[in-house]
Amino acid sequence: MEFQPQTIFEIAEAGRQKNNTGIIGATKRNGTWIQTTLDDFDRMKRHLALALHKMGIRKGDRVALHSENSVRWILADAAILSIGAINVPIYTTQPGDQIKYILENSEAKIYMFSQDKLFSNFKPYYKDVKGLEIVCLVSTAEKGFRMFDDMLKEGEAFEKENPGLFEKLRSDVKPDDLASFIYTSGTTGLPKGVMLTHQNIASNVQYSIERIPFDIEGERGGRILSYLPLSHIFERMLNYLYMHIGYPIYYIEVVEEIKDDIGHVKPMFFATVPRLLEKIYSGILNKVASGEGLALKIGMWAMEQAKAYKINTPPTGFAAFKLRMADKLVFSKIRAGFGGNLLGFISGGAALSPTMMNFFTALGFRCHQGYGLTETSPVLTVTTTGGIREGSSGRAIRCVELKIADDGEILARGPNIMKGYYKNPEATAEVIDKDGWFMTGDVGKIDAEGFLYITDRKKDIFKLSTGKYVAPQHVENTLMNSGLIEQIVVLGASRKFCSALIVPNAEAIKAKMGAVSEDDPDYAARVEKLIQAEVDLLNEKLPAWEQIKKFALLDSLLSIDGGELTPTMKTKRRVIHDKYKLEIERIYEEQ
Prior knowledge:
The mean pLDDT is 91. The protein starts with 7 loop residues before the first helix and ends with a helix. It is 38% helix and 20% strand. The chain has 20 helices and 26 strands.
């Protein structure tokens, strides 16, 4: 397939004729799934776009979109893009002061939000943003704001007065036009506005399709589950991909209900992050361990077969026979719990550990991993069904070039690389050289077959006082293979040894403790002993200088609200070092 510059709406709408369900997607609200037909979607998109045009929005103007995942998110996005405006997505978890900064920096003319709960974060600041119009994507909100239904009526009336205007506005949008400013969550400093064109994102759809883990011609009509935020380019690009191949998308309400939602939707595929798979992994192990009698013995035996599975060296002979028996007796029931239609999933956002990749592949799922950044629209590499390597993020998609710099940094070039950071040419020049190579900030290696292996973030690697370098994410991923560890942050810069701050998995700990009450005076000591045993076991997989010598347990989860995580769940290491300074100092006190 040769590269064909396209707009986002052209590549997304190409799937309309392939969709044999008549449904573009469904949104779960208050426990009820609300479906939207293709015809209704097209009508509302056209009317909302014309209403925006009537309000004065022109090609190149910025419209901010602050909403949880829903059909209305992609509807608003489609309307914005159709008239050549630029979508500025805002995370649902974004603090109000950051929303104000994003709106002012992007010079947004309209702020669209979905519910009062989201707007409340921005409410103290909205009057300070000059010339800002506010639109609500539902039908009830504070007075004085434009409502979704009213916008549709305005657009419908405007269309009657101006027939053919929508088509003309669409035809004026070109592949090189800017489509979105996506503000990076930033582990340090203010967020930067990544400028992505229609061509950047459309090319990523075009070549990521070649890596999706199912036959789109032979398995038409499967549903897709969506739970990662559409404000992040990973899920957003994939949604365009799903629309391109004609698959309806089902947007969940809250992630805590995702297990039930998977059972209801019975999806063929969904995108995820490693943390959800780690939780599912722990849940499967804990459920099997809670069995009794023969069921417990069979379940534990089957889990051993799954844990022993290696993608790089699939079992043969008697080992393969045991895996088939485990599949028949146990794994098939686990797959049924995922709705029975799930072929696989793709993990992004962070490195997926070999343990997770091997385990879920053994269960019969096509467990894929991708790698990329907001600045790369986002996909650079994806594994394929016949090309998965333990610990690898796969090979570069078509039209993307990768190379490793002298200092180990991964560099990328292709049609998906951003135009730059908005109003920040200095920062742009720091990451894109004169030959168009983008400096990812990640460290890795490429093997002889072209498979990429990511070691760590360049800025996160630290040196012990002994002179040894440590890649903390590698150590953290190894320790996260324990079902008893919920979160972990590895420490040790300029220290003699590696240590860690650990948040135990409360549910798994309780299951392990059995009848022991949290009120037991020895409970905390017992928890520490359990974690120590896990750390000791997993330390064996690490070289001596990367092993965790000491750790401190934290009582509460690291969170976005607490300031320790970015909206994309990346660790803010500086914040954590400052916040838990006393705990860290106690770890390194001389004994």
